[in-house]
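Tokens for Tripartite ATP-independent periplasmic transporter DctQ component. Go.
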Amino acid sequence: MANPDERLIPLESKTKLTKRGLLGYLDLINVYINKSLAWIAGISLLLMVFVVVANAVSREVYKPFIGTTELVGWLAAIALAFGLGFTQLQQGYVEIDALVEHFSPLLQRIIKSIMLFVSACFFFMVSWKMVSYAINVAENGNVSETMKIPFYPLIYLVALGFAGLTLALFVDFVKEVVGRAGDE
């Protein structure tokens, strides 16, 4: 497998970018959005470690923080959701193609295109429903159990993570249909 960074569109190459057209711009937006979300996911993981270690130390020295479990759970949700699109960019998901690999290349592309489209539609609906759920939670005034903090912003963030995955799947679908899936 080639270096994953080779498929990314470099910023300094403006001439290549203009030759790529609309698909190139779409891919550029996809890469930067999902890389940014992945950075935030990494920061969330580091914050989780910091909170758990700080809580363990404070438990021994004085008393533990209140709401550590909630905070770590929220950070885990952000880390998971924000890592989804970047994992799709890196083709990091398991593909079970034992049956499909015996088909002709054209049929394989058709099946892959259908799967990418269906997946993009599904995760678009997940993201949409998460937004409507966040609106409902905000209107009801729901707060977390221990810390009494409104948690609807977290639901919006999870929806954003699923939107990043939707974008990555849609761009892969367009590349597959156009026939440029392996060009990058």
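The longest helix spans residues 14-61.
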